[in-house]
């Protein structure tokens, strides 16, 4: 990463920040702007999008035409480096019968370098789910507490989108959003079809600039409507911390960043007071201790939880009086539905690249039916919309060869559409993470072991989503390309949507939760959690905007406390 | 007028009970259910793959390169190139896949030390051996030496959705070839041009959206489906 030089290694530090993704980036930005001196420890390597993102190369330049491999699961040019579903020498384990995928980039900026960019706000129901259906727990805060931070984060990171005007889907104030891009033809067809069935379709909220965002340190340009976002964005149109919050924090002169720093445990000054952390240099294997007045954990839900479980003296982990640490793990449900639409065959060509992903989406719309008890699942789901010109999927091509095959490809290009489901999972007692008593990583740090199970609630939700998607496809005379399998066979594995949340949840008191609504652990006054671990429930809405909003809120609270002399 | 939510739910439940219109490939008509050849050659043993390593989790993205050794010998590669020009033949829009060199991509793919590619290697190497054996059974000659009509009859026999008898593995071979040639061909500039693909072009300002012609087409589609545009 380019920017101002690191402060000296021996300069005093106010706050140690573990992690440099959405939460760590926001913490560094907010805390340094407040005048606090920060030390950021990132387990992955240094990473500079300007030098490493190959934005323009065609997929045919990459090995295997850029196809997914175990080394690069999202394709050769995907931004993720150094990690992925597996990291050499850093395993995780699973209890028998569990299937859980844990995505871990090892790079500055973390997952923001290649994320999905869909940034819906949670709504009032999403913060009080127990009050609505008696499942899970309520958050100790409501939508109104977070709304001002959503407003600021949307302006800060750059979000485009339109009005929603739907139950439990809050609209942003007028000056928060940039204009959304025009929909593409398949999206317009899906919109007309879904709306004829009473299913709403709206402009998505997407963290891609559609207008320039000037800044003296990290100016970012409006999207130029080309190149795949998940490779990273050298013009800064897509939000990623490495082109925005991190260089801005660095420019204050108060942020020192150490990469390849794998934090192994939190060190204590006294009971209830953290001294700092111990980390392993991933290149040399040497252990280092650093101290500060406060410690922020933003390592990602799994790593933050692992770090706490590996700290403390009594074997049950640090900040775990409640016993909730590691419990309440959730991911989003996921399933994909696809159809060939004969009416779209041979349609007129034009540029459908747009701003990368979907321009419009289907928000959840059945809250009243749910309230009346007409659905066999709790909570919601949404559909992300796909369908563009390109090489047709093999399933959509007939088994022909020769001139007929060439004709089929021409005709079918742009004639398949997809609806991708993302839904809320309710925490269950069989889904959690814990320290594996027998396995350590190559640094000698005990690893995480996952237990995971979908409940009937999630299975019924996916089955409902499939009926919905297929109803939309059938209304447009589509040919469904999905295998005819029971819903539990078409669901993604736990963790696969990379929305893991909840393992150090916030709550109203020290008996039912790990942290308060500002991420402060109940047990350790100067230890603050800022990533997805603190969510009290997942909602079906992609979590990153809420992670950023809560991290901003928590950082300002921490700075205020430190300015009034706390943890002197 | 927007239908009530209750109407929607009823419509959806009804739709869910209807049999789904599933894809029945045109090419399968008249072939599925019968063995196309009187004698089907046995599927040959495939020699083990050479040990190789992948490009790793942190390859140089600015200078991509293939780090594993290739598999096909000259004769196999010639057969693959011939198959490429049959599966995606030259016409007045684009060259044939064999002539364009997509065979090199097929070799690169089946040589890669990853699970998907290793499985495809079994199908392709086994399939090349089977194709020659089957051609000898039918025509007394290896595949490349057979007549155009004889080669076409062989590929026709492999283009079915419902293989029976010993045909499952040969048909999976053909499915794999079709997948690889389509991927390899249409990701090249010549293939993109063949599809009429427009994109990969930075455009300043707001995304312009569909062309007038594309919108006119959508209007016709909506009218035919009795859908209101929105």
From TrEMBL, chain A:
Cofactor(s) required for function per UniProt: FAD
Keywords: FAD, Flavoprotein, Oxidoreductase
Domain named Glucose-methanol-choline oxidoreductase C-terminal: residues: 440-551
Residue span, FAD-dependent oxidoreductase 2 FAD-binding domain: 14-44
Record-annotated Glucose-methanol-choline oxidoreductase N-terminal domain positions: 142-331
Name of the protein described by the UniProt record: GMC family oxidoreductase
Keyword Oxidoreductase in annotation: yes
Organism: Sphingomonas longa
A Pfam family this chain is assigned to: FAD_binding_2
Family: Belongs to the GMC oxidoreductase family.
TrEMBL record, chain B:
Keywords tagged on the record: Signal
Signal peptide positions (record): 1-28
One Pfam entry name: Gluconate_2-dh3
Name of this chain's protein: Gluconate 2-dehydrogenase subunit 3 family protein
Species of origin: Sphingomonas longa
